[in-house]
Design goal:
Type 1 dockerin domain; mainly alpha
Amino acid sequence: MLTVTAVDEVLLSDANLDGIADFLDISPFISLLSSGTFLDQADIDRNGEVNLLDIYPFIGIMSGQ
């Protein structure tokens, strides 16, 4: 028997959770980094942590790369 579970898609870099990855996410992203709080959308490198390793990929998304 196959069981399928619906999972909401994660929009990487959407740190303010408004459904859009844009410059309004920068301040919440910085807050997450400084507080050590985990948010799946802010874990850009998908290593299970929101940390300094997420900064460069976040900037890449913000710059459209």
